[in-house]
Known about the structure:
Layout: H1 12-26, H2 35-52, E1 59-70, E2 74-85, E3 88-99, E4 103-114, H3 122-136, E5 142-149
Antiparallel strand pairs: 1-2, 1-5, 2-3, 3-4
Amino acid sequence: MTNSNNDWNLDEEAIELLGQLAAAIHSLKSLAITGNDLIGLGEAIEAIDSIIEDGEIEVNVGLSVGFRAGDGDFEEGTFMCLRINADELNLDELNTTYSRAIGSDHSTVDYVYLTPNSALDEFELNNWLNRLDEIKSFPEARLSVSRDHV
């Protein structure tokens, strides 16, 4: 899943914001519980660096930071999610609800979907970073990592 035509089309402000994204991912290390979590954080940071440098990305890594709160009858969850691979950088927010009487539901708020040859939505990247800061500040916040090598 490597994209041999990596042209991420970044201006200086986008490069600076991606650096801020990498720093935000680095700040999640305090939420890491396993070695796999730490490796996933490192792979995500390395992939962001590769986007900045127009290099090859040879991982498919996903991160989510969030929590569920409630009781047995009703529960809500919020998760800030990142997926990065050779074809995309995707930042979104997953909201979940569960009610014993009704069942479960979820919705997704898309913030950033960056592909080679597309432009970075800098406003939405800032919004995602601000929301991540808010969510990770909750004591219940947990990190989840999924990793694949390509």
